[in-house]
Amino acid sequence: MTKKQRYEHVLNFFQEHIPDAETELIYDNPFQLLVAVILSAQCTDKRVNLTTPALFRKYPTPQKMAAADFDDLFPLIRSISYPNNKTKHLIGMANMLLEKFNGQVPMTVDELVQLPGVGRKTANVITSVIDEQPNMAVDTHVFRVSKRIGLVSAGASTPLAVEKELIRHIPEHMVHRAHHWLILHGRYVCVARNPKCHECPLTQWCKYYETFVAPYAGQD
Ligand code: SF4
């Protein structure tokens, strides 16, 4: 099977079965999504969603968050990983939004990565989710799943290399959805330790399955 065929089959499957895939983070506006994505680094979306309602109640705007005291904000995100750094990042990010971007969340990757706590992955999430820009955020799920299926070459060893390869092959209009497809597949089926190949609908197009599972099927 050529790489082109693999992409076609996998993307068609997702398009047909989960056409409306979207982020599992709960938010009402770009500022809230930006806060939620910053909090989600090294943390589950579930935990972030438990935390953000109280945070958004107390700090609903960049203005309010920029004026927050560390000691007031910190307890609200204490249960999230790295609360110390993330408290500093949120307050710093809100201040920069006011000082540099007129209180609005900018919609380019180059501008977003200037904000404290925002790296390329976060910037790609924001621009693809809010603005449907063809930017691929490569998190641990996207990295693992795209390599296992064989969407990217074994030599793609960094998130940026994986991002570039995916972007090269996925039709532009599908990129913002494909990000969620790969994340959801990695979160619920192609999980890190023991991928659930026995319940996966992608086996016939998956390189990992072809190499490591199919040859040994029925041997136990
Ligand atoms: S067949 Fe297995 S390795 Fe391949 S995508 Fe499905 S769960 Fe992942």
What can you tell me about this protein's structure?
The chain is an all-alpha fold. The chain folds into 2 domains: 3-21 and 136-216, Endonuclease Iii, domain 2, CATH 1.10.1670.10; 30-131, Endonuclease III, domain 1. It is built from 12 helices and no strands. α2 (30-40) crosses α3 and α2 runs antiparallel to α8 (120-131). The two termini are 28 Å apart. It catalyses: 2'-deoxyribonucleotide-(2'-deoxyribose 5'-phosphate)-2'-deoxyribonucleotide-DNA = a 3'-end 2'-deoxyribonucleotide-(2,3-dehydro-2,3-deoxyribose 5'-phosphate)-DNA + a 5'-end 5'-phospho-2'-deoxyribonucleoside-DNA + H(+).
Major beta sheet summary: none
Count the domains.
2
Q: What is the CA-atom radius of gyration, in angstroms?
A: 19 Å
Q: State the CATH superfamily name of the largest domain.
A: Hypothetical protein, domain 2
Structural class: mainly alpha
Note the overall shape.
elongated
Q: What is the beta-strand fraction?
A: under 5%
The top level CATH class name of the largest domain: Mainly Alpha
List the helices and strands and how they pair.
Layout: H1 3-17, H2 30-40, H3 45-58, H4 62-66, H5 70-73, H6 83-101, H7 109-112, H8 120-131, H9 140-149, H10 159-169, H11 175-188, H12 207-213
The structure holds iron/sulfur cluster.
Short précis:
This protein is an all-alpha fold and about 220 residues long.
